[in-house]
Amino acid sequence: MTFLVNYVHVILLCIQLCPLLAEKNRPNIIVLLADDLGRESLPSYGNNEEKVPNVERLFMEGAKFNHLLSPAALCTPSRSAFLTGRYPYRFGLGEGSNGPPVIVYSSSKVGLPRNESTWANLAQSLGYSTKAVGKWHMGMDEIFWGDQEHGPLTHGFDSFYGLPFTVVPGFEGQQEFWTLQRSNSQILITVIILLLLGWWRSLWMERYLNSILVSNEKVVERPIQLKRLAERLTNESLKFIHQNVGVKPFLLYHAFHNLHKPVQVSDEFVGKGSGTPYSDSLVEMDYQIGRILDTLDDLSIQNNTIVFFASDHGKLGQNLPFKGGKGAPSLEGGVRIPGAIRWPNRIPSGFAINEPISLLDFFPTLNQILDTDYTLKKLDGKSFYESVSNHSSSIPRMLYHFCGIQIHALRYYDGRGSIIKGVFAKENLNSDGICSEGICNCAKAALIPSEQMDILNVTSDGKEEKLSSHAENEYRSLFLKTYNDFKKEKKTFSTTGFIF
């Protein structure tokens, strides 16, 4: 009888401890997201001028994505799609007609809806400690300060330290209007414009209401001191890692403000790049990534930590060898981004994945790695874990490239190596392949009638080759069916809730 009682106690103890043991064996997860980083800026994609040893370390010790895609070519829609695994038109973060394409105020009432789940919610549901550090730019509060209707604390993060908004040229305090470097006529014109637009659009409002650094719901700095911001954000991430080692598995989302304009780096990084402020900012970001990777080594947790690195979309301006850049969803330069994933002993090191992978795929990939199926809604991405862990060939898939809620391009992978793109819009480019307005404005792109779409082979990096007439007809029918099916779906949802 005593033996039976002891046996029952052992069984009950196992029932209680098994979830705890499983929790401790789960991998830590670190997501490093760069801002406006183009592929051509990195040695792994052909740039031998830049020195970024820590970013390159991720490519050498992990798997490199050769055809990684952003779900959108601008910050807000791209980041929200990345976190949710869903196209932003599904939850109102595709821009509405005649409106700006991203959130333009830290106090905006719009943003990522409360009922959209993220991969941070997934981790939180499994007992992870979760933190977001850095740039959010998906909305914060809706009715009153601190309600976090759209913020990180509502979307799976236990804590947040960073920028609710983004960084813009008004933050660094060097606007010409304030330093009076304009002529009298320019100052007069500026004052008249400000009066017409209203004081809330003034540079003062930009710097003192949008430029805020927040710890959870508390403003800790206004305006943000940009020069040492990268270092301070990394300090927060390192503190979080140290707090959780040996206690709970953790998920850290570190979203850099590097390399978004205005570019301001700590003094020790000025002139350390290849000759431009953008390059200096890249070197500074690389150094901060090195601090995080070195900490994993020092704590001996590198082998049980997944590190995922990517950019939110293409670089502003030129993205050689591609055409277009930030803001151009139909062009490779707007949506082709660098990326790598490292998980020692689970993901082989030093190999490249050539099939199209989207930031949409990160959520379903974590679902597979963590052996769960956490989502409240249908995901648009698919897991890439088999591709990076077993080098297995993937199945065919179609990817959409939106300007707001309008398809500007479709990308089809046949599962055998060919990647074909159907293009429904023509951006206004200059002779260097750069959008004439700097940031590409896809809303002003000339739409191509669907029956006359351009069909291009984008299998080879940097090349957009026309297909033979026979092959073109095969893909044309496929793209037309997909395009028309979406037009029917679009009629079933209202655009009145679309933001901005």
Automatic annotation (TrEMBL):
Name the Gene3D superfamilies on file: 3.30.1120.10, Alkaline Phosphatase, subunit A
Its Enzyme Commission number? 3.1.6.-
Protein's recorded name? ARSD_F_H
Q: Which UniProt keywords apply?
A: Calcium, Hydrolase, Metal-binding
Query: What family does the database annotate?
Result: Belongs to the sulfatase family.
User: InterPro entries of this UniProt entry?
Assistant: Alkaline_phosphatase_core_sf, Sulfatase, Sulfatase_CS, Sulfatase_N
Which species is listed as the source? Lepeophtheirus salmonis (Salmon louse)
Q: Which cofactor does it need?
A: Ca(2+)
Sulfatase N-terminal domain sequence ranges: 27-370
The enzyme class is hydrolase
Annotated GO MF terms: arylsulfatase activity; metal ion binding
